[in-house]
Amino acid sequence: MAMIERTEWYDLLRATNWTPKYVTEDELFPEEMSGHRGIPIEDWETYDEPYKVTYPEYVEIQREKDAGAYSVKAALARDKFLERADPGWISILQAHYGALALAEYGAIVGEARMARFSKAPGNRNMATFGMMDETRHAQLQLFFPHANCKLDRKWDWAHKALHTNEWAALAGRHFFEDIIHSRDAISMGIMLTFAFETGFTNMQFLGLAADAAEAGDHTFSSLISSIQTDESRHAQQGGPMVKLLVEKGMKADAQRLIDIAFWRSWKLFSVLTGPMMDYYTPMEHRSQSFKEFMQEWIVGQFERSILDMGLDKPWYWDQFLRDLDETHHGMHLGVWYWRPTVWWNPRAGVNPDEREWLEEKYPGWNDTFGKCWDVIIDNLVNDRVEQTLPETLPLVCNMSNIPIVGTPADGWNVKDYPLKYKDRLYHFGSEPDRWCFEQEPERYADHLSFVDRFLAGMMEPMDLSGALKYMSLAPGEIGEDAYGLAWADIYKEMAHKKAG
Amino acid sequence: MSQDASLNNMVGPIVRAGEVADAVAEAMEIDNPGKEVIVDDKLAYLRISVEDECILRKETMEEVLGHSFEMRELEINLSSFAGKIENTKDYVRFYFERHL
Ligand SMILES: [Fe+2]
Ligand SMILES: [Fe+2]
After folding, report:
1. Topology classification of domain B5-95
2. What are phi and psi of A251, to 5 degrees?
C-alpha cells in the first residue's frame, strides 16, 4: 500500500476545530483558560507550528532518546563517578534535581492547558506531545537521583524540595506558579515555552551539560542534553502565538508577558545556575564563565530571536547586561553564608587561583565581592567559624523571593526598591522586580515571602532552628560547606608564613 | 558594561556531541556552498553557525554517515538551534526573517 506523505495530510488531520453542538464556543474555550483575546477562531487556525510531528513519529523518536539516556546511565553505573566526583559537583546535581524535577511536573499542567484550551489546533497537537515530554523529564530526573538516595539524604530532595517551604523552593514555586499555573493558555505559552524554554532552560540543560562533560559526568551531560532536545521542539509553540498577537495589534501584550517572564527567569538563574557555573564547578572543568554562557545563550541566541519576532528589547536591557557582571556573585555569597538553609552543600570556590579566575572573568571582583570573602577568610583563618554563619535572615525580594543583593565594597550599589500597596510595604531587589509587581499587584499582593512569614511568627522558635524546622531541613539535610571548610587551610598556611 | 551580543545574524543547529553532530558539521559545509560554517565545539555540544540562513539535507547526511537517515532523527540530537526552523522530510532550514 502506498503511503501518503505526512506533509499532505498533516494539516487536514490536525484541523480539529469542530463546531460544538452541546455547548457554546465560549463555554468550550472560556477566556480565562484559553486566552484567545477575542481573536476569532478562524484566525487561531492560521497558527502554523514550525515543528510538525505525528504520533508514530513522536513515539519512535522518543523511544530512541530514552534508550540513549538509560543506556548511558546503565553503562556508567559501575564507573562510580559520584564516589570520586568533587563535592562541589555533587552539590550541583542535588541543587539541580531538587529545583527542577517537580517543576517538570508543573510544566505538564501547562502543556495540558494548551492541549485543552488553546483555540489553535496546531498548538493543541504540539502541546499533547509537550505533555508527554514533560512527563519524561520529571520521571527521568526523579529516577536518576533516586539511585543515589542510599549515599546521602540530600538526594531525596530531588523529590522533596518543592514540597517544602525551604526558601529557594518557595522562590521556585512562586515563579512557576506565576508563569505556568495561574495564566491562560496563551499567556502561559508565551511565558513558559517562549521566554523560559527557548531562552533560559538552555543555560541549565546545555550550558551545564558542557561543564558536566568537562567534569567527566557523562551520565548527567547525556541526560540533560537529551531532555533539551524535547524542549527545543515544544518550546516552538510560543513563537506563532507571539506572531499572531503582533499581527492583531497586541504587540504590547506579548512584549509585557515576555519582559516579566524574562526578568523573573533571570533572577532565578542568577541564584541557581550562576553559583553552579562560577563557584561550584571545579575550575579546571569550567568550559566558560556564567556570564559567557549567558552571552552565548540568552543574549546572542534568545534575545536575537525576540528581535526577529518584531518585538523590542526589554526596557531594562542595559541594566540586565550590567547585572550579568554582578548579581550572581551576590547570590553566591548569600547562599554560602546562609548555607544551613539549603539542601545542598555550597562550595565557596574562592581559593587564590579561583579568585584569579574570577578577577579575569569579572574585572574588579577582588575589590568588590572579594572584600566580603576577605572578611570570611580572615574569620576562618582565626578560627571564628561562628562569624561565618548566620544569626538573622537576609532581606528578601517580594517578587523573586530571593535575597536582595547588590555589589559590595568599592562598587557599592546595594539598594532596596520599596513599594507601598494597600497599606503593606513591599521590598524588591531591583526596579524590574518592582515593575513586575506593578503590572498586576493583586496577583502577587497576598503572598508572604520567607521573611514576611518569619516576622509573622509562623516559625517557632523565632530563630534559625525554627526557620530550619519550617523549611523541613533535618540534620543530614542541612547544608554545610562542601569541603567542611578545609579549603581555608591554604589561607591559614599563607597567614602562618607571613607571621613566621 | 557587557557589549550587546544580541546584534548578530548567526543561525544554525546546536547538536549533542557524537557521530550525528560531526556528520551535521560536515554536511553543512556541503549543503551551504560559499558560506562560512563556524563550528564551536563545547564538548557536550557543537554549535554550528552560518550567517542569515542555512540548510541541512537528508541526502547529504546519508552520504556523510554512510547509512540511511530520516530527517526527523535529527531531533534525537538537536538540543537547540539559533534562528527559526523549517522542518521537512528532505531538509531542515534555519533562518532569520530580518537581517540586523
Ligand atoms: Fe521539561
Ligand atoms: Fe519544557
Report:
1. Phenol Hydroxylase P2 Protein (3.90.56)
2. -60, -40
Q: Name the phi and psi angles at A400, rounded to 5.
A: -75, -20
Given a contact cutoff of 8 angstroms between Cβ atoms, the answer to whether B68 and B61 are in contact is no
Closest by Cβ to B2, choosing from A221, A296, A321: A321
SS3 of residue A136 by DSSP: helix
Tell me the residues surrounding ligand 2 (ion) with CB < 5 Å.
Answer: A 107, 197, 231
CATH architecture entry for A32-499: Orthogonal Bundle (1.10)
CA of A231 to the centre of ligand 1 (A): 6
pTM across the whole model: 0.96
C-alpha cell at A374: 576577605
Length of chain A: 500
The yes-or-no verdict on residue A24 having pLDDT over 60 is: yes
A488: left (phi over 0), alpha (psi -120 to 50) or beta: alpha
Q: Do B45 and A210 touch (CB under 8 A)?
A: yes
Note the ligand closest to the C-alpha atom of A130.
2
Partner B contacted by A137 (CB < 8 A): no
Q: Locate A343 and state its grid cell.
A: 539542601
Residue with grid cell 505525528, as numbered in its chain: A54
| pLDDT 10s digits, A301-333 | 999 999 999 999 999 999 999 999 999 999 999
pLDDT-derived band at B3 (thresholds 50, 70, 90) equals low
Q: Which residues in chain B have their CB less than 8 angstroms from residue A214's CB?
A: 43
Domain ranges of chain B: 5-95
Residue A283 exposure: Cα atoms within 13 Å on the Cβ side: 13
Task: Inform me whether the pLDDT recorded for A500 exceeds 90.
Answer: no
Closest listed residue to residue A478, CA positions, set A491, A490, A469, A489: A469
